[in-house]
Write a structure and sequence with these properties.
Number of helices: 21
Radius of gyration: 41 Å
Number of strands: 8
Largest sheet: 4 strands, antiparallel
Distance between the termini: 116 Å
Order of helices and strands: HHHHHEHEHEEEEEEHHHHHHHHHHHHHH
Helix content: 55-70%
């Protein structure tokens, strides 16, 4: 395959169950590079060019697609201008005397004799082609298209599933040109030739699998260089750089398929970050590009998955405050329905670890909890709070706290039991202290203990009985 395949794009699963599983290797660099999400100025300008390109523009565009800019671009523009000048001076006068069919054939032979030295599957760069003579189907096709225009031939690039070639209008019809071979004019036809040893023989270039062909304009042909570079970067898991080239390619062509592939490049980079557990970076990168290119709907499931991963990270750490803060911060970035689902997940996880009374009430009001579940949680949480109060301040403040709750809480069966336990524990504590003072015959302290208890609860039957008993004990000594 000499054309970078669009099938090399790594796609992210749309279904998210627990953790996002991204089938992407960890990026080889130690630090994440900046990801370019806006097109280079050159491609914004080139997108407005009309096709077919004139020779100079075709040269410039193909070199820019090869990654050249600034002084480097100028240098190779001069090299190609010199090549075209030499061709026009030495070969063109002869070619123009021939028929268009002969002209197209001889042009191909001239290219291979003068410049194209060795086929290399991944050699798509136009600067390397002119320096070293190595080429693949894309770079050799572009060279043929450039020179054919000079030879007054109407030509087009043609794309198949995994290959690129050219076709020439001879005036009697279109003829395919397999540019990777000097004998590729009208492939499938037996041709006589004379080799360098003056031996006559025949060569046969079989036609490729051209069943699924697409005729390309010059912008689309130029974009194939960008596509091949993307494929090479993806091969080495360099997804950050791939994204920028994908933006350039779509900007140049405006093709809907290229738009989809650009989004795939964005998703790939988000997957790399996700694989590194940089869930926040992945989420906000994808949110940003989705807003920029109106991809919210296409990326909704993936954005939700990344948000889910971010949330679960906090929940697994039992950092419910950060989980709540995270969801609040993403309120304007996520659809209301997705945010609601995440909030319910956070609530359930928080509740499973104890949760809070406001959370339980919110979960009940949102329909997450049944009335029985709500009651069970409320009893548990208020019992926990009462126990904390009892540990820090005593049983009586805990009992006062429970008796001051709203009627719908106090009336819960479990709450009545807890309230009774707190009251009993407070009463038992006072009574036991009173009994110990009596045992020591410290009747003044015993009386003081009962007095403090009866001030807090004058109707306490245990204290009142203890007071009567104390009075009976003290009478013989009066």
């Amino acid at each position: 395959m000499c054309k970078g395949s669009k099938h090399l794009v790594i796609r992210i699963p749309a279904v998210w169950i627990f953790l996002l599983l991204a089938a992407v290797s960890v990026y080889s660099k130690t630090a994440d590079p900046a990801v370019r999400t806006a097109p280079l100025a050159f491609w914004k300008e080139a997108s407005g060019w009309t096709t077919p390109f004139e020779t100079g523009r075709f040269i410039t565009a193909s070199l820019a697609a090869s990654g050249l800019s600034g002084a480097g671009l100028k240098t190779y523009e001069m090299k190609y201008s010199s090549l075209v000048h030499t061709f026009n001076k030495t070969e063109l006068p002869y070619l123009l005397k021939l028929s268009k069919e002969q002209r197209g054939d001889k042009l191909l032979v001239w290219m291979h004799k003068q410049l194209l030295k060795q086929y290399s599957l991944e050699q798509t760069f136009m600067n390397v082609l002119i320096d070293r003579g190595t080429f693949n189907c894309v770079s050799s096709s572009i060279l043929y298209l450039i020179l054919a225009r000079e030879a007054d031939l109407t030509t087009r690039g043609v794309e198949t599933k995994d290959h690129v070639f050219c076709k020439v209008n001879t005036g009697k019809g279109w003829i395919d040109v397999e540019t990777t071979s000097p004998f590729g004019f009208n492939p499938g036809v037996k041709k006589e030739f004379v080799n360098d040893f003056k031996q006559t023989g025949f060569t046969y270039v079989p036609p490729g699998n051209y069943a699924y062909r697409k005729v390309l304009n010059d912008k689309e042909v130029t974009a194939l260089i960008l596509q091949n570079r993307m494929a090479l970067l993806q091969k080495h898991n360099r997804h950050a750089e791939t994204a920028g080239l994908a933006v350039d390619r779509w900007t140049l062509t405006g093709d809907s398929n290229h738009f989809t592939e650009m989004n795939n490049a964005f998703r790939n980079w988000a997957a790399v970050l996700n694989d590194k557990k940089d869930y926040s970076g992945a989420l906000h990168f994808l949110i940003k590009v989705s807003k920029t290119y109106n991809l919210q709907q296409e990326n909704r499931k993936l954005v939700y998955g990344l948000a889910y991963n971010n949330l679960i990270m906090f929940l697994n750490q039992k950092d419910f405050t950060r989980a709540e803060t995270f969801l609040a911060a993403e309120k304007n970035n996520l659809p209301a329905e997705d945010l609601d689902k995440l909030e319910k997940i956070a609530l359930r996880r928080s509740l499973s670890s104890g949760g809070s009374i406001p959370q339980v009430q919110k979960a009940y009001e949102s329909g997450m909890l049944t009335q029985k579940e709500w009651a069970d949680y409320m009893v548990y949480l208020y019992q926990k709070k009462a126990a904390e109060t009892a540990d820090s301040r005593g049983y009586f403040p805990a009992w006062i706290f429970l008796t001051g709750l709203p009627d719908n809480i106090k009336s819960l069966p479990g709450m009545k039991k807890i309230t009774a336990v707190m009251y009993h524990n407070w009463t038992a504590g006072i009574h036991n202290t009173f009994v110990e003072a009596v045992r020591k015959k410290d009747f003044l302290s015993a009386e003081k203990i009962l007095k403090e208890g009866l001030i807090k609860d004058p109707e306490n039957t245990v204290f009142r009985e203890d007071r009567t008993n104390l009075q009976n004990l003290r009478q013989p000594t009066d």
